[in-house]
Amino acid sequence: MTDELRNEIKRLSISERILLAEDIWDSVADENESFQLTAVQKEELDNRSESFKNNKKLGRSWEAIKKEFLGK
Predict the structure, then answer these.
(1) Which residue has the higher pLDDT, 35 or 2?
(2) What beta strand segments (E) does the chain contain?
(3) Which listed site, 30, 41, 48, 54, has its alpha carbon 20 to 30 Å from 3?
(4) Tens digit of pLDDT for each residue in 4-33?
(5) Which residues of 27-50 are buried (b: 16+ CB within 10 A; e: fewer)?
(6) Helices 14-31 and 62-70: crossing angle, nearest 10°?
(7) How would residue 70 be classed by pLDDT, with cut points 50, 70 and 90?
(8) H-helix segments, 1-72
(9) Domain ranges of the chain
(10) C-alpha to C-alpha distance for 37 and 41, rounded to whole angstroms
């Protein structure tokens, strides 16, 4: 990465940098369809998902958290 690109990124607001990071991560995930979770990671995600389904008052959706964090 060039210094010029780093400087451009630093000029973005925090919200814009977060969205950029998400876009970059999504592009990596799109290109690397073979990305696999470990068994432990999958089990943890399954447990959290099940817990949320059973008692939605104990958690919040990613969209709700992102909306709050980004102030939108």
Answers:
(1) 2
(2) none
(3) 30
(4) 999 999 999 999 999 999 999 888 877 766
(5) eeeeeeeeeeeeeeeeeeeeeeee
(6) 150
(7) confident
(8) 3-10, 14-31, 39-54, 62-70
(9) 1-35, 36-72
(10) 6
**38, 46 contact by CB (below 8 A):** no
| Token pair belonging to 21 | 């990071």
**What pTM was estimated for this model as a whole?**
0.43
Amino acid identity of residue 38, one-letter, is: T
55: left (phi over 0), alpha (psi -120 to 50) or beta: beta
35 phi and psi angles, rounded to 5 deg: -60, 125
Alpha carbons 34 and 5: distance in angstroms, whole number: 29
Q: Which two tokens stand for residue 4?
A: 């010029």
Distance CA 9, CA 23 (A): 13
